[in-house]
Design goal:
It is a single chain. It is built from eight helices and seven strands. The protein is of the alpha/beta class and 184 residues long. The longest helix is centred in the N-terminal third of the chain and has 19 residues, at 3-21. It is elongated.
Length: 184
């Protein structure tokens, strides 16, 4: 046996012994992992429960971008962006601006040109949420000002758009494509 083979054999034996000597650990999880999807009537309570959970891996909560700005808009909440440990981004659902099918707005350029001439009403899901912040960012980038209105859900906003009460909806592509014409 040459020196190189002897060193390889020695390294293999040493690493094998190290594995055998290492303390054994219980397999994770040792108990059920609780998953909270905090939407609907108990949303605020659920977010607080996730925030108060022991950081041991046995509580997983789903959050959306709106919850990350809650402490800015509502100082009474007991959590903020630093409260959570983020594990993964599960959904990528870009925001779009949509108009009714019979609108004269056919492109983002049309929307900007019209908004420079007259005030267009744009809906979003609520102050401080991702859609609201996206519209504010767009207003700044395009140097326009919209009349912003929040509805209690996408259904109300869609009804207002179809009824001609608002000019466009800012929402997620998954909610708007197929229902209206997207211009962004």
């Amino acid at each position: 046996m040459n020196v190189k083979s002897s060193l390889v054999a020695l390294a293999f034996t040493a690493s094998s012994l190290a594995l055998l000597a290492a303390p054994s650990q219980a397999a994770f999880p040792e108990k059920p992992v609780e998953m909270i999807v905090p939407y609907g009537a108990g949303g605020q309570i659920d977010f607080s429960a996730i925030a108060a959970a022991k950081p041991d891996g046995y509580m997983i909560g789903w959050i959306n971008s709106g919850i990350l700005t809650s402490s800015i808009v509502r100082p009474d909440v007991t959590f903020n962006i630093d409260t959570y440990d983020y594990v993964a981004n599960i959904v990528i659902d870009p925001g779009v601006l949509s108009v009714a099918g019979d609108s004269d707005i056919n492109s983002l350029e049309d929307l900007i040109a019209l908004a420079k001439k007259e005030k267009i009403t744009v809906s979003h899901e609520g102050i401080g949420g991702g859609d609201h912040l996206a519209v504010l960012q767009f207003e700044h980038a395009a140097d326009v000002a919209f009349d912003l209105v929040a509805f209690n859900g996408d259904a109300e906003a869609k009804a207002a758009l179809l009824g001609g009460h608002i000019g466009t909806i800012e929402g997620n592509v998954s909610e708007e494509v197929g229902s209206f014409r997207t211009v962004s």
